[in-house]
Specification:
Oligomer: single chain
Radius of gyration: 21 Å
Distance between the termini: 18 Å
Low-confidence stretches: none
Mean pLDDT: 82
Number of helices: 20
Structural class: mainly alpha
Shape: globular
């Protein structure tokens, strides 16, 4: 399939990915909505452990990006038969990676969290959540490989259906397992972990069934299980490893931020947990457009149409900014109406106290909407190592700012969150500079 650079094409590819690439965001949002009604300690705990699991998920998602970029490049070159071989190289690696992550969550998480969580109650709740949540990593990692497959071939419609089913199952089971409804055990935060894992299993099974009935699966050679191709896996990881490192650096700095805020007090930590989930939900369009630009840039390069890459990235960034602005402004201006249904009456005081933080969050989203697209457009060219250098420099500056602002200057929550604005602004400037330099023209994928 050869793509074009029209707004219609951008929307056709990116809109379904907005949901599909935000699976973990949807799960995290549902967990927070229910646990906010349980206690402020549960809300603070899910704020920390939720970010931790997002890092785990981001590692698998990042490694799938290498396969997605390669699949899009093969499609642009017209080599449809290579799609299946590239896909299974992804799956083999993701399964092996899932084993390591599962063992770490089961046996290393207590020691890990004890380094930066001071409250014994919050620490216990984090471990309780992961006891059940860790089993979902196998289905999550293979699931992102399937999402990468259909994103790479620019056939993203079923991703919407699968994600919606996952969200509904997770919502229902959260209600039942957290509060003990419909004869299910009352498990608290552990129930949230179990509900999310079951939802991922359901979504995975549905995707497998879809592949089985997909008429184009034969053209992609998806029903031919190839031998392990170490060279192909190595080639994918050469592209994907910097992307994974970017995710770990970026999310790791965010986890560091939550650890510092937790030390400011339970109220600040609870507000930050609430703002985190608002951030995750409102940034769904950003992640959708960013993931879509990976595929479209790589496909264009496969067609040898490099001169169209920069106009395509700008069009995508413009659409992303418009969509993000449209959904974010009502939330920021009227939080008492937009957030009340999700966080409940018991947290109404937190919503009111978070008003100024919401203004900062709005600024973050506007910069992220453009910066995230340019940064992922850079990844689509194959320049993932330079992307890693950009994010590492920005993350180090981010951590230094947070440490100094919170520990030394003892600034308020708004100035702590403002670090995200500086972070994404720096990424936007550096990504734009590299793309304009045309150094990526000589890269091979």
């Amino acid at each position: 399939m050869q793509l074009n650079t029209s707004y219609k094409q951008i929307l056709a590819i990116s809109t379904p990915i907005m949901l599909g690439s935000a699976v973990q965001n949807v799960i995290a949002a549902t967990d927070v909505v229910f646990l906010a009604r349980l206690s402020k300690a549960d809300l603070a705990a899910i704020g920390i452990v939720g970010v931790f699991y997002l890092i785990i998920a981001a590692v698998g998602f990042g490694f799938s990006k290498g396969g997605q970029i390669m699949i899009a490049r093969r499609m642009g070159e017209g080599e449809i038969g290579e799609v299946g071989r590239t896909f299974y190289a992804m799956v083999y690696f993701e399964l092996l990676l899932a084993v390591f992550m599962f063992l770490f969550m089961q046996y290393g998480s207590l020691q890990f969290f004890s380094h930066f969580v001071d409250s014994p109650e919050i620490l216990f709740k984090c471990i309780e959540y992961l006891e059940y949540r860790s089993y979902g990593v196998f289905f999550s990692y293979v699931g992102v490989a399937i999402v990468a497959l259909y994103t790479g071939v620019a056939r993203t419609n079923f991703i919407v259906i699968d994600t919606l089913i996952l969200a509904v199952v997770n919502f229902i089971l959260n209600w039942g397992l957290i509060f003990g409804k419909w004869g299910l055990p009352e498990m608290g935060i552990a129930g949230a972990g179990l509900a999310s894992t079951i939802a991922e299993i359901v979504a995975f099974v549905l995707f497998v069934v879809y592949i089985f009935f997909d008429k184009k699966a034969i053209e992609y050679n998806l029903f031919k299980l190839p031998k392990i191709d170490y060279e192909l896996i190595k080639q994918q990881q050469k592209i994907a490893t910097p992307i994974v490192a970017q995710a770990v650096v970026g999310m790791g700095s965010w986890l560091f931020f939550f650890g510092l805020v937790e030390n400011l007090g339970d109220r600040e930590s609870a507000i930050t947990s609430m703002m985190r989930i608002v951030y995750l939900v409102l940034s769904i369009p950003c992640w959708g457009f960013a993931s879509g630009i990976n595929t479209m840039v790589s496909n264009l390069i496969g067609q040898n149409r490099r001169e169209e890459v920069m106009p395509l990235i700008w069009k995508t960034a413009f659409l992303c900014l418009i969509v993000t602005f449209s959904i974010s402004l009502p939330v920021v201006l009227f939080p008492e109406y937009s957030l009340y249904p999700f966080f409940g009456e018991t947290n109404l005081d937190l919503i009111q106290d978070a008003q100024y933080t919401l203004y900062v969050l709005f600024g973050i989203l506007m910069i992220f909407a453009v910066g995230g697209v340019y940064f992922n457009g850079l990844a689509g060219t194959g320049a993932t190592f330079f992307g890693l250098m950009i994010q590492t420099v920005c993350a180090v500056a981010y951590v230094l700012y947070i440490s100094f602002a919170v520990k030394q200057l003892e600034v308020g929550l708004e100035w702590a969150w403002a670090a995200e604005i500086f972070y994404w602004l720096a990424i936007l400037v550096l990504s734009y500079w590299y793309l304009k330099s045309n150094k990526w023209h000589k890269l091979e994928v």
